[in-house]
């Protein structure tokens, strides 16, 4: 369950940034290729946030589909299935352009 490690690093990183201010909302972008389960992440986030500046903060998750450019047929920005990362032409020689990371996009403090 890597959601716990991710939740911990988000809580740590945001906590350091806000310098003690109380956080009310955190918006994260979750790429489908990260295989993060939004419900599990939310659960872990709440647990990790307890006793920190992020306690009680709302975690908003925006799921981002995986997109890639195909090096074989040149298709650009093609949507890729996270479990079967293949281009429609059958090639697996893809350059990912989105969906492979998790980013904190916005934080609101009280
Ligand atoms: Zn292709």
UniProtKB/TrEMBL annotation:
Keyword list, A-Z: Metal-binding, Nickel, Zinc
InterPro entries found in the cross-reference section: Hydgase_Ni_incorp_HypA/HybF_CS (IPR020538), HypA/HybF (IPR000688)
Gene3D superfamilies found in the cross-reference section: 3.30.2320.80
Manganese in keyword set: no
UniProt: Ni(2+) binding residues: 2
Similarity section: Belongs to the HypA/HybF family.
Listed name of the protein: Hydrogenase maturation factor HypA
Gene of this entry: hypA_1
């Amino acid at each position: 369950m890597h959601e716990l490690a991710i939740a911990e690093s988000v809580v740590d990183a945001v906590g350091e940034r806000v310098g003690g201010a109380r956080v009310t909302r955190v918006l994260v972008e979750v790429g489908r290729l990260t295989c993060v389960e939004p419900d599990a992440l939310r659960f872990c986030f709440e647990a990790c946030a307890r006793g920190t500046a992020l306690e009680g903060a709302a975690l908003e998750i925006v799921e981002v589909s995986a997109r890639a450019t195909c090096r074989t047929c040149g298709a650009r920005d093609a949507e890729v299935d996270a479990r079967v990362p293949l281009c429609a032409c059958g090639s697996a020689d893809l350059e990912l352009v989105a969906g492979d990371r998790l980013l904190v996009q916005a934080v609101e403090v009280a």
